[in-house]
Every structure is written in C-alpha cells, then in structure tokens.
Amino acid sequence: MARNSFLRKIRKKAKAVSATAAVLALALSGCSVSTSSTAAVTGKAGTSIEGAVELFDANAAHNVSIVWDEDDYDTMIAAYETDSDKAWISADITIDGTLIKNVGVRLKGNSTLRSLGGAQSGGGGMGQGGAADGTMPTDLPTDMAGGMGGRGGTPPEGAGGTMPTDMPTDMAKGGVGGAPGGMGDSSNISADDPASLPLLIRFDKYVDGTEYEGLTQLALRPGTPVINEALALSVTAATGQSTQRYAYTTYSVNGSATQTRLLLENPDEAYGESIDDGNSVVFKADADSSFSYQGDDLSVYEDQFKQLNKTDTQDATPIVAFLKWLDGADDATFDAELANWVDVDSFAKYVATQNLLANSDDMAGPGQNYYLSYDLSTKKISVISWDLNLALSGNATASPDESLSMGGGGMGGKGGGLGGNSLKTRFLASDTFKLLYDSAYQELYTQVFAEGTAQSLLASITESIPASDDLTKEEIAEKSKTLGTFLTQRGEALEKALAN
C-alpha cells in the first residue's frame, strides 16, 4: 500500500505556514515568548534520569511531546509499507518537563499496524484492528468453532460461534478483534497523523546507559482512551499478579494537537529482575513464536522467546525442556507431572483472569501476548499477561468454561496467525485441574465483581484520564459509562454461571 505522498506534502507545508504565522503574530504584537511553560530540563544522556513528576503517579497530570525530523519519519513509514520493517529513528522527547535527546522511536504492534500497509497487511484480519468495517471475517477455517467453545473445545449450547447479542449497542463496532467500541478505537491510525501511531520508545537505543526513572523502554499504546486496557491492568495488579505499570498523558508530535494516550511500561531487563525479587528469568513470546518443541538447538528459540534478564548466566534451556516434555506427554502424564514443570496455582489464576476479563487475545490468541517466567528456586514456569487492549470487550456473557481465544486450540505453529496454545488448551480440558481452575475463578469473581473492585477501579481510572484537544471530559465520561455497562453485564453473567 503506497503512502499518500500528496497529503504528506500538504501536511508539511501546513505546519510550516502555521509556524511562520505564529512568529509574525508575536512580532506584530510586540510580545515575547514566555519560557515558563515551555522550557524543559535536559536530562544527561547516558545516565539514569529522574523526572520532575513520578511517571506512573495516577494523581499527577502528565504531558509527553516528541520531536523528530519529518524526513526520518517518512523513511520509517516507507520501511514499514515496503516490507513491514519497524525501523528506528532518532527523536527528542519531553516527559513532564524533562527533555531527553536522541532517543530511539519505532512503530509498535502487529495487526494494529495493518492499516498502514506492509508486507503482511492482508486487510483487517482478526487482530487488534479487526476488519476495516468492524465485522467478522467470512473466510475463517470451518473447524475454527472449536476454539470458541468450552473446556473441551466445543461451543456452548446456543453459541454457534456467533457474537453475543446482548452487548452494549455502542460496543458492536468492535466485535471480536475490533476496537472495544465506546472505549477507544485502536485501529484508527494513519501515517498522515503521526500522533495517532503506536510507538516503542527506547531511551538507550542511541546512547548506552540512558534511562528514565529506571526505564529503558516505554510503549505508547494505540487508541484513546482505551479505558478497558487500563482497567484490565489494574485488576490484574489488584489480584496480586505481575503486570505492567501505566499512566495517562496528553501527547503531541512536532507541535500537533494533543491526544490522550496510554503510556505503558515495556518490559526490559529491569522488569525481568523485578519479578520474584530477581529470582526469575523472564522471556517474551514473539507474535510469530511457536509454543512447541523444535529440537534442542537453543538458537532456534532465541527470536521466538526473547530473554529479558540474566543473559550472562541463564538461557532458554528450561523452556525448551518443558516444551519437549509437553510435546511427548500423553494426557495421563500431563495430569500427573505438569505440577513439576509449571506453577499450576499461578497458571490457574492466569487462565481464570483472562476469561474473567473476557480477553480474546491472551497467550492463546493470534498476538501470542504473554511472558514466561522461570523461577530459579522452584524450577517452575509461570505466565505473565501482556497487551490487554482486547480485555473487557467482546463477549460479556461468556461462561467460565467458555474459551474466548480467537484462534482455537492447536493452531499455534510458527507464523500460525490464528493463535492457540497447547498448554492452556490441555490445562482447561483436564479434569485433574478443573477444581484448581474453578477455585481460582470463584476467588477472582468475588474480589473483582462481588466486592466491587472493578467498578471502584474504573471510577479512579476515569478521574485520572486527562482531556486533550482530541478528547473532551464529556467523551471520557461517556466511554467510562459504556465500560461500566459492560462490567455490570459481565458480573451478572458470571454470578448466574457460578451459581449453577
């Protein structure tokens, strides 16, 4: 898909004209520019920079602005349009008044970026963006219905693989894989609106040792205000599970109108060391990874499971050993020995949480959104959630025994696209682990819905979301109300299901 170069040129000229007009206006009025609101403290490159305001303080107002060279930006977009390459460019970023120069910036996402073109665009797909018109694709494999079913992979009676009909009417736009309607459209991005794009910001890309408040990376999430993602992150944390920190901010690029965006901690080495008090090795699953045994050569797994920490002393051997065992284990062996490899209590809680949050793109989804944590003391593996932008959207009435993964089981081959994860599928199909799962689910339901944690967190999050040029307080309130309706429906559906 070729970029609209004509629109790009107009955009550049418009900015130049606006800048010239501003200078002339100041000259004619005899005014001088006040530096009190625009001057920034420059952080020293190669050091750990402390911000004027704690970045993840929800009670503080945050502002982020990025400045980059327009030609560099065009090169970055062209690289993605040509072969889906996410090329890095240099930029200067100001966070809450602190300027950090020469940071690395690149596009971030997979299906989210499909509207930009690229070698793998292929239309809307079933990823975060969904179909262009928000509808379900019609060319799915005919046997995919199993992935939308219950514990054994079959759809619950009356489901038929169809979308629920009792969702809030303004959520229908998103559908499965679409934007959480009423909460922020993550597919509404354009190369002609640079501020709309999801980005990965890396402070030490060009200058080694540069950190901001101990972070080397930040993810600028797509869409606005994506309250569902923020709430899912908060619920995960409130239930005692590892997750990622976030903050809402007003955001602009090269002096553009401001947008309201979600900034998310992008797991790095320090994040890995924060898990289990530094006693675990953490791996990020790539979107094209395969949760399967592919031989003993560790190099085969390097790009599929990126190791975040302890790279000098540890490697992926425990992960490969587990995959080898999983590949050869029959059902009886799986039931008898899984607890030797996996923290089954933690895993039951993870799987139950994804269903509770109605997340259709977890470790078994097409995005393969998860981290693996290997505890060096217990020698067991746990799963950490990631990329929750499809949580708390979609099917509000799904039962605890119903699979919400978009890809179905057993389809997690390399580049498989539709997802699937054999560990999750077999765990949910096992009668041995049913009591563990049911117990974890009941406990989560009680805390999150029956005790009102979700609604309370929603109120707090809504208060923290700043208005911007592109988002009014009234719009924020309306989107929060939509999500509140979803929570009510979800809670009522689960109360009924768990009572049976």
Largest sheet: 7 strands, mixed, barrel
* Uncertain residue segments: 1-7, 9-38, 122-182, 407-417
Beta-strand content bin:
5-15%
Q: What Rg do the Cα atoms give?
A: 23 Å
In whole angstroms, the N-to-C terminal distance is 52 Å
InterPro entries: Spore_coat_CotH_CotH2/3/7
Protein name: Spore coat protein CotH
Keywords: Capsid protein, Signal, Virion
Pfam family, one: CotH
Provide a compact summary of the structure.
This is Spore coat protein CotH. With 500 residues, the protein is an alpha+beta fold.
What can you see in these coordinates?
- The protein is of the alpha+beta class and 500 residues long.
- It has a domain at 275-446.
- The chain contains eleven helices and 14 strands.
- It has helices at residues 5-29, 70-83, 227-238, 269-274, 317-328, 331-341, 344-356, 422-429, 434-450, 453-464, 473-499, and strands at 41-42, 48-49, 63-68, 89-95, 98-107, 199-202, 211-212, 217-220, 246-253, 259-265, 280-285, 305-307, 370-375, 381-385.
- The protein is globular, with a radius of gyration of 23 Å.
What's the helix and strand layout?
Elements: H1 5-29, E1 41-42, E2 48-49, E3 63-68, H2 70-83, E4 89-95, E5 98-107, E6 199-202, E7 211-212, E8 217-220, H3 227-238, E9 246-253, E10 259-265, H4 269-274, E11 280-285, E12 305-307, H5 317-328, H6 331-341, H7 344-356, E13 370-375, E14 381-385, H8 422-429, H9 434-450, H10 453-464, H11 473-499
Parallel strand pairs: 1-5, 2-7, 3-9
Antiparallel strand pairs: 3-4, 4-5, 5-6, 6-8, 8-10, 9-10, 11-12, 11-13, 13-14
Helix pairs in contact: 3-10, 7-9, 9-11, 10-11
